[in-house]
Structure formats: structure tokens, C-alpha cells
Amino acid sequence: MSNIASPHAFVSTTEWSVRCELAAFYRLLAHFRMTDLIDTHISVRVPSAKDLFFINRYGVLFHEMKASDLVKIDINGDLVDECHNAGPINKAGFNIHSAIHGARHDAVCIVHTHTSAGMAVSAQEEGLLPITQHALKFYDCLSYHDYEGIALNPAECPRLVADLGSNMAMILRNHGLLAVGGSVAEAFNQIYFLERACQAQVAALAGGQPLRYPSKHICELTAKQSADEIRDNLHLLAWESALRLIDDQKSEYCS
């Protein structure tokens, strides 16, 4: 862990609250075993700032993430922290985030994971199958982006943005999962259910039995019902519930 000074004294109460919320999101990914050592990342827009974002300081494990471990950067991934917190950041990773943040101003929070189930489904030709209630949350609103190697090439960014379109979730072929949200809570909801849908699909395919598919009408209905839940802010209830799972860590991640 780092011995850098806390930026708490340098930032507003609102900004510190967002830092704490993002640190909690990192720890929840660890709680749900959705991490990949120091790789993968979550970013969130800085409140009331144009094209400024928080992202993890590269090298900090997700279960030990603190508000003071988050780094403020611009759309190019360059450090702009008032307290001069040291990087580094995963610039290859932020290539993905910067492209989406720059094109989608509704994307307040972006999360990218490399889970076993997510990578497995990303490698399957048909992608996410409409075989579970969780998968139907993404029916006709899930994007796909073909693998182009480690995301180091800025030329990939326009294709990434075009493939995501207006959707809130995307499978990066042969790579992993990506979700966006208008808030940290919404991004958490998207990645949690996408991950669970992938886990269920891997288990179902491993069973070796014929799969049962709901009708197109039921698939569409379930997708609409899931969208209604977001509009009714039920994802906020889920987020608050999830935070209670790590409530004993709050004093640490808010430091």
C-alpha cells in the first residue's frame, strides 16, 4: 500500500464523497470475486468538472482500495490531482474509458472486468444467450466489440464507441465485460447482472443438456421490465444493500 498523503484536505466534500463511493465499488468487485490482480478498472467523472475523471492508481489491489488511492486525470489520462498523488495509471485501460467518457456524457461511471465467466462468454461465437432472467435484462441492448489486441492503439477508440452505441453494456470479444451507468450505482447494477448472466450461461452449457429458450415476446417483455426497474431506481436499493456487505471496511476505504 501507498504512504501518500490523503487528498481529503485538498478537495470538496462532494468530490470526497465520490471518491469514497468509487473506492467502495472497487472493494465490492473484490467481494464478488470480479477482480484480475491489478488489472481491470473503474472510472467515474469528477463532479462539476469537464472531462476529468477518477481511476485507480495502478498496482493497488481492489480489496485494499481507498479514496486516497484514486487518481484524478484528464481525458488523455494525464494527472491533474491538486494534491499531486503519484500514479501510475493503466493507460492502456484508460484508452477504453477515455473513448467512452469522451463520446457518452451520460456515462458517469464505466467498469471493465476480466472474470472467468465474462471471458468465457466473450469467446463464445453466439455471445450472451437469452436463457436466463439475468441475461434477458440485456436482450437487444447488449453490444459487442471485436478483439484488436491490448487496448494500446488510439485508432481503436472510434470503433469501440461505435460498437457500444447507446447501450449500457458490452462484451469485448475474447477479452471481458464492460458496463456504463449514469451513476456508480447504475454501473454496479449493470456489471453485476451481466456477470451473473455469464456465470449462469457457463454453468448451463457445462451441464450438457439441451437449452430452453423463452419466446421472443417474453424476452422483449423481460427486457422492458428490467429497464423499468432502473427508471424506478431499484438499482439504488441494490447498491445500498451491497454497501452493507463491506460496511465494516468503510472507515478504511474512506481514508
TrEMBL record:
Gene3D superfamilies for this protein: Class II aldolase/adducin N-terminal domain (3.40.225.10)
Single GO MF annotation: actin filament binding
InterPro entries the record matches: Aldolase-II_Adducin_sf (IPR051017), Aldolase_II/adducin_N (IPR001303), Aldolase_II/adducin_N_sf (IPR036409)
Domain of life according to the entry: Bacteria
Class II aldolase/adducin N-terminal domain boundaries: 20-202
GO biological process, one term: monosaccharide metabolic process
Record family assignment: Belongs to the aldolase class II family.
PANTHER family referenced in this protein's UniProt entry, alphabetically: ADDUCIN, PROTEIN HU-LI TAI SHAO
NCBIfam families in UniProt: PRK07044.1 (NF005451)
Protein name: Class II aldolase/adducin N-terminal domain-containing protein
Organism: Pseudomonas fluorescens
